[in-house]
Design brief:
The protein is an all-alpha fold. The mean pLDDT is 77. It has 1 helix and no strands.
């Protein structure tokens, strides 16, 4: 296995690190799809809602000073 990561290497012609803006650190292949499916199944099994609660900034205050 390349680099000892335990994962299957990317097919030739594909980079492990895509420097293009907006694509870095995003999953776009089989591994990302499998991880997403496992997360959604686990979320349903434990009863988590698809979307979290509404968030509020009411508890935050602007710091004093310059």
């Amino acid at each position: 296995m390349a680099g000892g990561s335990g994962r299957i290497p990317q097919p030739s012609g594909h980079r492990h690190n895509d420097p293009r803006f907006g694509l870095r650190m995003t999953g776009r292949r089989i591994f990302a799809n499998q991880l997403s499916q496992m997360f959604h199944i686990a979320r349903r099994k434990v009863g988590l809602a698809e979307h979290g609660p509404a968030l509020s900034v009411a508890a935050f205050q602007k710091p004093e000073g310059p």
